[in-house]
Design brief:
This protein is α+β, with helices and mostly antiparallel strands. The chain has 3 domains: about 10-40, no CATH class; about 80-220, Lysozyme; about 220-360, Distorted Sandwich (Glucose Permease (Domain IIA)), CATH 2.70.70. Helices cover about 40% and strands about 15% of the residues. It is built from 12 helices and 10 strands. It has helices at about 1-20, 25-35, 45-50, 75, 85-90, 95-110, 125-130, 140-155, 160-170, 170-180, 185-195, 195-220; strands at about 230, 235-240, 245, 250-260, 265-270, 275-285, 290, 295-300, 305-310, 315.
Length: about 350
């Protein structure tokens, strides 16, 4: 009898330790419920992305947990000087352009040289390794880091796996890719079931930061007219005419399409807690659960101006950051380390009246 009890106790302990190690969905759900009960609206995987979406008029420059400056969407949007070369490097290494630019921007923390090339350093690299007796440049740094990422893409057979390889190691990243169907959402699920918690948290944050910034760089304004009728919290009333087509501002899955609070809303969700909602439209032309590409028609405008909002989890971010050119040309850019003032199609953006709006 005592032997049976001992075996049962051993089995229970083994299962409990295994569940904690791999963060099975049940335990992850408990953690999410706990975070919701405490009023937390940003998950750990979106914490860095929330700082990247800091408006340029914020009173403080965003920093990470180590106190280092975080690059912002505004900085990356306005830097176009190196785009032609980045397109070439992205094509040669089979990496989507927006993902490469987001990866380099985050890894370099926004530091660029006088020509707009990122000062990104390969993990474990030393000055001797990089310069080899020559003066290093932003172009060499950018090219070296891109080629390194390209090698990881070939080694892991996935650009998503290559992004997390610095946190997990190439072998673990490649194993995650084997469990995934290739989409970002599937890859995140594969990370959840195949990585130990020690690797999973940092890898999720790295992947979601890159994917979220890349989605923002690929975003487009939902209507042709960039004029804005008015701000409404962190959201914006779009300047539309009755019957005008409303376009998808980002690529993702249609997570809601239908009546909401007396009007029609469409919500598009990306892989990492980022959601774009457009409400108060006349009709929706998309169905819930369908994947939609940025720029595709999703609805028809009513006589009332549609309300456009972007969320990160339950937290509303300044939607005007996704407008090119921006709303406010008088705002001044933040000073980030050695990044030079840069001119681009994206001008300065005013801060919203509120942050932290709740869902529509």
């Amino acid at each position: 009898m005592n032997r049976k009890k001992g075996l049962l106790a051993f089995l229970c302990t083994f299962l409990a330790v295994s569940a904690l190690a791999i963060q099975v969905p049940f335990l992850s759900g408990i953690a999410n419920l706990s975070a919701a009960a405490e009023g937390k609206t940003i998950t750990h995987r979106s914490a860095l992305l929330a700082k990247i979406f800091t408006p340029p008029t914020a009173p403080q420059i965003p920093t990470d947990a180590a106190g280092k400056t975080v690059v912002t969407l505004f900085q990356v949007q306005r830097e176009h000087r190196s785009d032609a070369k980045l397109h070439e490097l992205a094509q040669n290494n089979h990496i989507p352009f927006s993902i490469l630019k987001a990866y380099l921007a985050i890894w370099s923390k926004g530091e660029v040289d006088e020509n707009g090339f990122f000062w990104a350093t390969i993990p474990g690299e030393t000055p001797t390794d990089t310069t080899v007796g020559k003066k290093d440049t932003g172009l060499r740094s950018t090219t070296r880091m891109t080629n390194h990422l390209g090698k990881l893409v070939r080694r892991t057979s996935s650009h998503l796996a290559a992004i997390i390889a610095s946190e997990t190691g190439p072998e673990r990243a490649a194993r995650v890719a084997k469990f995934s169907s290739g989409s970002a959402r599937s890859f995140l699920h594969a990370m959840r079931i195949s990585l130990l918690a020690y690797y999973k948290q940092k890898a999720e944050q790295k992947l979601c930061s890159v994917l979220g910034l890349a989605s923002a760089l690929d975003a487009r304004w939902p209507v042709a007219d960039h004029d804005v009728q008015m701000r409404q919290g962190a959201g914006i009333r779009l300047a539309t005419s009755p019957g005008e087509k409303i376009l998808a501002p980002v690529s993702g899955t249609v997570s809601f399409s239908g009546q909401n609070d007396g009007g029609v809303c469409v919500e598009i969700t990306t892989a990492c807690d980022m959601r774009a909602t457009i409400c108060d439209i006349k009709t929706s032309t998309v169905k819930t659960g369908k994947h939609i590409e940025v720029g595709r028609a999703i609805g028809i405008a009513a006589s009332q101006r549609p309300l456009y909002k972007v969320y990160l989890g339950a937290f509303a971010v300044d939607s005007s950051q996704f407008l090119h050119p921006s709303l406010d040309e008088e705002s001044k850019p933040q000073s980030h380390q050695s990044t030079d003032p840069i001119k681009s199609e994206s001008e300065k953006i005013s801060a919203p009246e509120e942050q932290g709006d709740q869902n529509p």
